[in-house]
């Protein structure tokens, strides 16, 4: 097992700066969004007291008189949050095999007493832990901000970790299909491009599916079901109407299936002579 943990340490060393910057960006954004939620909650309470805020609250996807945590989570659908975890997942997945082949460094790694499965497992472990750390940084930044901003009912950290874990689970299939594509290829740009297009297509499908003018379209349910982003619901993750367990299970299942296929593809493929 020593070569395996050596590879894990090497992988973390290679990604330390991107991991730190991604985690720091989400922690800062988590803090900022709590400040915005605090201001928004104050306005909502004032509007509700005047009987004028119910339409406004419904437009945010919330019930009447929503708790503080749901107002906070309404902002966790911000595209920048999704972009950070998607970039991490797709970048790590596309780097795992094809980039090492393209650089000619995979032959040096495989010349050590390490199997192909151990090599790929070290990549998966590093990337999975990285996703969890980035998502936890978002929750930690938000939790720290609750001590410096006025909220009617500040949420506990464990409750913030539920939507944060849903976010990490959302990125897990993205990592899975990027890794699968990388396991077949010898250059980085193809799996990176294909995985990015798939992710962007899913995001566009989700946006289109929630536009009111398309609500009665025949293809609207298909667009909604075809998107992974439908399974990321930060507001629902902290509410009583939660489909959290089902959504997370589906995301983890899809990611695990892609990773299993990547192991099979990498174990049975022919590597170039320099690898």
Task: Describe the protein's architecture and organization.
By secondary structure, this protein is mostly helical. It has one domain (2-268). 74% of the residues lie in helices and 0% in strands. It contains 11 helices and no strands. It has helices at 2-49, 54-59, 68-73, 79-103, 106-110, 116-145, 157-184, 189-209, 220-225, 234-237, 244-268. α6 (116-145) packs antiparallel against α7 (157-184) and α7 (157-184) packs parallel to α11 (244-268). It is globular and about 75 Å long. The two termini are 22 Å apart. The mean pLDDT is 86.
User: What is the percentage of strand-forming residues?
Assistant: under 5%
Whole-Å distance between the termini? Answer: 22 Å
Helix content, binned percent: over 70%
The shape is globular
Could you tell me the radius of gyration in angstroms? 21 Å
Overall pLDDT score: 86
- Output the number of helix runs: 11
Q: Strand pairing plus helix content: what structural class?
A: mainly alpha
Number of strands: 0
Number of domains: 1
Biggest sheet descriptor: none
The stretches of 5 or more residues where confidence is low (pLDDT under 50) are none
Series of secondary-structure elements, N-terminal to C-terminal: HHHHHHHHHHH
């Amino acid at each position: 097992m020593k070569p395996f943990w050596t590879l894990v340490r090497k992988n973390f060393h290679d990604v330390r700066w991107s991991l730190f910057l991604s985690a720091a960006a989400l922690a800062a954004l988590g803090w900022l969004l709590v400040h915005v939620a605090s201001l928004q909650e104050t306005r909502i309470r004032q509007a509700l007291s005047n009987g004028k805020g119910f339409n406004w609250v419904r437009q945010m996807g919330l019930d009447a008189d929503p708790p503080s945590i749901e107002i906070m989570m309404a902002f966790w659908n911000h595209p920048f949050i999704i972009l950070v975890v998607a970039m991490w997942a797709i970048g790590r997945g596309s780097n795992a095999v094809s980039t090492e082949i393209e650089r000619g460094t995979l032959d040096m790694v495989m010349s050590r007493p390490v199997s192909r499965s151990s090599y790929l497992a070290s990549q998966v472990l590093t990337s999975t832990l990285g996703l969890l750390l980035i998502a936890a940084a978002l929750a930690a930044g938000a939790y720290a901000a609750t001590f410096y901003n006025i909220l009617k009912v500040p949420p506990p950290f464990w409750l913030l970790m539920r939507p944060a874990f849903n976010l990490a689970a959302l990125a897990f299939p993205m990592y899975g299909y990027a890794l699968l594509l990388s396991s077949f290829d010898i250059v980085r740009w193809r799996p990176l491009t294909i995985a990015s297009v798939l992710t962007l297509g899913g995001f566009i499908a989700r946006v289109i599916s929630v536009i009111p003018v398309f609500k009665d379209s025949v293809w609207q349910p298909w667009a909604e079901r075809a998107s992974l982003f439908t399974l990321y619901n930060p507001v629902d993750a902290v509410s009583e109407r939660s489909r959290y367990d089902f959504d997370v299970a589906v995301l983890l299942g899809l990611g695990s299936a892609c990773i299993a296929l990547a192991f099979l593809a990498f174990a049975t493929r022919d590597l170039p002579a320099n690898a």
